[in-house]
Amino acid sequence: MKKIKFSNVYLWLVFIILYAPIIYLITYSFNSGSYMTGWSGFSLKHYSELWQDNRMLEIVINTIIIALLSSIFSTIIGTFGALWINFTQRRVVKNLLLNFNSVLLVSPDVIIGASFLIFFTTISLPLGFFSVLLSHIAFSIPIVVLMVLPRLQEMPNSLIEAAEDLGAKPFQVLSKITIPYILSGIMSGFFMALTYSLDDFAVTFFVTGNGFTTLSVEIYSRARQGISLEINALSALMFVVSLLLVIIYYFISKGSRRNNHLEVAK
Description:
The protein is mostly helical. It has 2 domains: 1-43; 53-265, Orthogonal Bundle (MetI-like fold), CATH 1.10.3720. 80% of the residues lie in helices and 0% in strands. The chain has helices at residues 2-27, 45-52, 54-87, 91-106, 109-122, 129-154, 157-165, 170-181, 183-199, 202-207, 215-223, 229-265. The longest helix has 37 residues, at 229-265. The chain starts with a helix and ends with a helix.
């Protein structure tokens, strides 16, 4: 019992440390004052200022577009990459592919960002929307592979063998058996890629240009001049959106697992 109580206290302590700064930041988004040094009263004026800040709204839209597009493309590429790795017969080739996939995961973001900058400069690609999009797709693919591959490894070979025995073609096996079974892994990869894209600063900082920027880079630029409580309001809204994404993902993954159990039972 003492161990259980201690673990509960430790867990609550971890949550307090993690969420206290976020709650503090969100609380001051409703402060009528202009600074986080003292509470002046409840107000929604910073949300109103945010709504009237056309540049910030444009940057938010740019960030969302980049995140959605990069997540969609990286999920498609990463899923087929995981399929390729999983069904590779030669062990040496499979290990080599896994090691290549791990390079972007373990490499420092500064090194990755500088590498992309040098690459885009070498091929004369203007820094802006497409350079940011390509960079986000590139560093999100290994994340998707990491999410999808375990689901593929858990899938019983008997499902594929039974489908092939019944005359199913490779595309039918892929669309009717494999994809539905690993859907929870695909959705995990998509939401992880979406989160990484929305959150990324280091890589994006190197490859932005031509007046195009994302939210993380803009917040960094404004923070150097002193953070306005408008940023608090924006952070509060993003936190709510993140919670909604987590809730949506939870129900999608729960439904996918239930469908997988039903398919296996059949």
